[in-house]
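Project outcomes to date are best conveyed with an example. Our students and postdoctoral researchers have been running inverse folding experiments weekly, and each run begins with a structure described purely in tokens. The record below, which covers 190 residues, was selected by the lab manager from last quarter's runs and is presented without edits.
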């Protein structure tokens, strides 16, 4: 069942999405990590990963294709990994250049966060990025994320050294930003 935002629909990944995903991973501007260089991901590599996925009722990760509602075009991918039941997960987002600055990335991120906090009941969501991607940091900050770990000059990319950062968002901060939503999880008092 797809997740619906204001500007986007997050749907399941299909085989035909793999060409775009390989292109996004090979674009230095949309790829997040210098350790993934050189950019030599092939469509066949992505298809092999996609076809090797096994069904599980006990999922700790999911990948969603971002579809812009207005055009019906595929705009990118948003995912969560490493979910620890009712505790935390890490998210990632990659959006094609034509959709930069359109609000699609923000809406996709907010739609995924609503699912993670409201449906999965997570306490904390985090992401990894680096200071060479100011748009990624700005997108995270816009959703309320703050830097919680900084590894200085840990990433070499674009011909320079950048800080690797972990940014996190706590459940109570998410709901404070969204008064239209009700936090249905009981708080454990200390």
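After processing, the design step wrote out the following sequence:
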């Amino acid at each position: 069942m797809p997740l619906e935002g204001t500007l986007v629909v997050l749907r399941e990944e299909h085989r035909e999405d793999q060409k775009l995903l390989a292109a996004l991973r090979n674009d230095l501007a949309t790829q997040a990590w210098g350790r993934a260089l050189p950019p030599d991901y092939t469509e066949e590599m992505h298809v092999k990963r996609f076809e090797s996925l096994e069904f599980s009722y006990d999922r700790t990760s999911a990948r969603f294709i971002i579809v812009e509602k207005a055009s019906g075009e595929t705009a990118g991918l948003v995912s969560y990994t490493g979910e620890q039941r009712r505790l935390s997960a890490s998210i990632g987002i990659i959006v094609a250049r034509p959709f930069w600055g359109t609000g699609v990335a923000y809406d996709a991120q907010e739609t995924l966060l609503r699912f993670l906090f409201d449906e999965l009941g997570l306490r904390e969501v985090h992401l990894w990025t680096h200071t060479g991607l100011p748009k990624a940091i700005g997108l995270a900050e816009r959703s309320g994320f703050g830097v919680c770990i900084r590894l200085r000059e840990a990433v070499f990319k674009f011909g320079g050294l950048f800080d690797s950062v972990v940014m996190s968002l706590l459940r109570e901060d998410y709901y404070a930003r969204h008064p239209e939503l009700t936090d249905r999880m009981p708080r454990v008092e200390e």
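The chain has a mean pLDDT of 89. Residues 56 and 181 are 30 Å apart (CA to CA). The training component of this project remains on track.
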